[in-house]
Write a structure and sequence with these properties.
Elements (H helix, E strand, L loop, with lengths): L1 E4 L12 E3 L5 E3 L2 E2 L2 E4 L9 H4 L1 H39 L9 H35 L11 H14 L36 H13 L6 H8 L2 H4 L1 H9 L6 H11 L1 H24 L9 H12 L12 H29 L3 H38 L4 H34 L3 H58 L1
Antiparallel strand pairs: 1-5, 2-3, 3-4
Helix pairs in contact: 2-3, 2-6, 3-4, 9-10, 10-11, 10-12, 11-12, 13-14
């Protein structure tokens, strides 16, 4: 990759017609010469693939497919680790005893899935850096390693590396504390019987934080969405400076499938929050340690009902319920927006509805105007009859009421027409303006043709006048000759 630029150089003697002018710029035969400056690293060679646009497009397509595939595998590894953690927490010690070979095997599988997930995350970001290099036509990969990118990769690796590791620790690790006596039917979480309370809390926290791996869902949705895969979407978006992020894809999904998207999110959040609440409350012998009670508590907290019949007892459970309440308020607001949009009238229905309302209000205005005229006539007739003052006052009140109704209906019609004028269809207005422009162009062309025909007729009249004047001059000249 090279760039043509003018660069000052020290004065050198002439070589093959190349000279240096007084400004320090190289020139050849009196004209300034172009100097090529390489932007790549001096020790690296640029391959023909990097310099060809066709090869770059091909490599970019392959890298996008690799990113999509790696993201799907990473999400699968993350979900596998979460499912193994849930199975281990539910089966131990109901099916197998703590510290047995089954417990160590499941913990080992969780660690293996975590290692595979970390490898897939590193490979994904490697492909992303290569894609950045191709998009920006760079050679050195260190240009892509900005501070934000490094911090993002480090945070992702830290989040994906979290998994329960307390089962691997020895029994004498930590500060001595009395051994807990657990109820075999409601175990807090699978640990060796000699573990301390501190390590039980650590494993509980690590098990709950494994759900942070679900951030990969939004990346998988973005990379597998039809919006990103469609070439027409990308071309039109690039022309309008639209960045195809997860926010844009989420807006598209909420516009196309609002009920389905909200239902999937609410059901998944409900089950996940209920299991996390059960995990937190199992260390206390309370009702919320049961899955059915946890589902009920999450449901009434999510819907902001709060009957008060059950309540969390641990700090972890209170945090889960607090987060559930916040998410419930947000989902309720989105649900109200979706229902409002579904119940709203479309453009055609609005045009029909407001047209019929306008006709109805016009009829009422005509009736009100007729009432005003009738009351004026009755008031005039009672004015002529001077004896009946009560009827005169009655008709005055009726006239004022009829005038008030008439003004109210006129104001209502004006508001309706103002609101209707704001709903004018832009495409219809564009068609009307195109028709007007075409009519104006036709009128202009007809006017031009008429002006041209008038000019031709004026020329013909001028020529006829000239021929007539010549004939008259000839006739006068002959008459003068005859007189002589």
């Amino acid at each position: 990759m090279e760039l043509n630029a003018r660069e000052p150089r020290p004065p050198e003697p002439k070589t093959d017609g190349l000279a240096v002018n007084c400004d320090g710029l190289a020139s050849r035969n009196g004209e300034p010469a172009e100097i090529t400056v390489s932007l790549s690293h001096p020790g690296k060679r640029v391959s023909p693939i990097e310099g060809s646009n066709l090869y770059r497009l091909r490599d970019r397509k392959f890298l996008l497919e690799d990113k999509r595939r790696l993201c799907a595998w990473a999400l699968g590894a993350a979900m596998l680790g979460i499912l193994l953690m849930i199975a281990h927490a539910e089966l131990c010690p109901a099916v197998y005893q703590p510290g047995s070979i089954y417990a160590l095997s499941i913990n080992g599988l969780i660690s293996v899935s975590t290692g595979c997930l970390l490898i897939l995350i590193i490979a994904f970001h490697y492909k992303d850096i290569r894609l950045f290099i191709i998009d920006h036509n760079q050679v050195d990969w260190r240009i892509a390693m900005t501070t934000n990118r490094v911090l993002g990769i480090s945070l992702e690796l830290l989040v994906c590396a979290i998994h329960p590791v307390a089962s691997y620790l020895g029994p004498d690790v930590g500060v001595p504390s009395p051994v807990l006596t657990w109820n075999s039917s409601v175990p807090p979480i699978c640990l060796c019987q000699s573990q301390r309370h501190t390590w039980m809390e650590v494993e509980l926290l690590l098990s709950g934080l494994m759900f942070l791996r679900l951030y990969l869902v939004h990346r998988a949705i973005l990379l597998h969405s039809k919006v990103l895969l469609s070439a027409s979407y990308r071309s039109i978006g690039s022309l309008n400076n639209i960045n195809f992020t997860f926010r844009f894809v989420l807006k598209v999904l909420m516009n196309k499938y609002p009920a389905r998207t909200l239902l999937v999110f609410i059901m998944f959040f409900w089950l996940s929050a209920a299991w996390m609440l059960r995990l937190c409350e199992r260390q206390e012998e309370v009702n919320t340690g049961d899955m059915g009670t946890a589902l009920w508590l999450i449901a009434i907290t999510f819907l902001t009902v709060g009957y008060g019949d059950v309540a969390p007892q641990t700090s972890c459970g209170k945090v889960v319920c607090l987060f559930t309440g916040v998410m419930g308020v947000a989902c309720t607001a989105m649900l109200v927006a979706v229902v409002t949009k579904k119940l709203a009238l479309n453009k055609g229905e609005k045009h029909v509805h407001f047209f019929m309302m306008d006709i109805q209000i016009s009829k009422e205005i005509r009736n009100a105007a007729a009432n005003v005229l009738r009351e004026c006539w009755l008031l005039h007739r009672t004015t002529q009859a001077k004896n009946n003052n009560g009827e005169h006052r009655h008709h005055q009140r009726c006239l004022l009421e009829a005038i008030r109704v008439f003004r109210h209906l006129r104001l209502k019609q004006r508001k309706l027409r103002d609101y209707t004028s704001e709903m004018v269809d832009l495409s219809k207005m564009q068609m009307i303006m195109c028709d007007l422009s075409a009519n104006w162009n036709n009128s202009y062309r007809e006017l031009e043709q008429r002006i041209i025909s008038m000019e031709q007729k004026l020329d013909e009249l001028g020529q006829s006048f000239q021929s007539t004047s010549q004939l008259l001059s000839q006739a006068l000249h002959r008459r003068r000759l005859d007189h002589r």
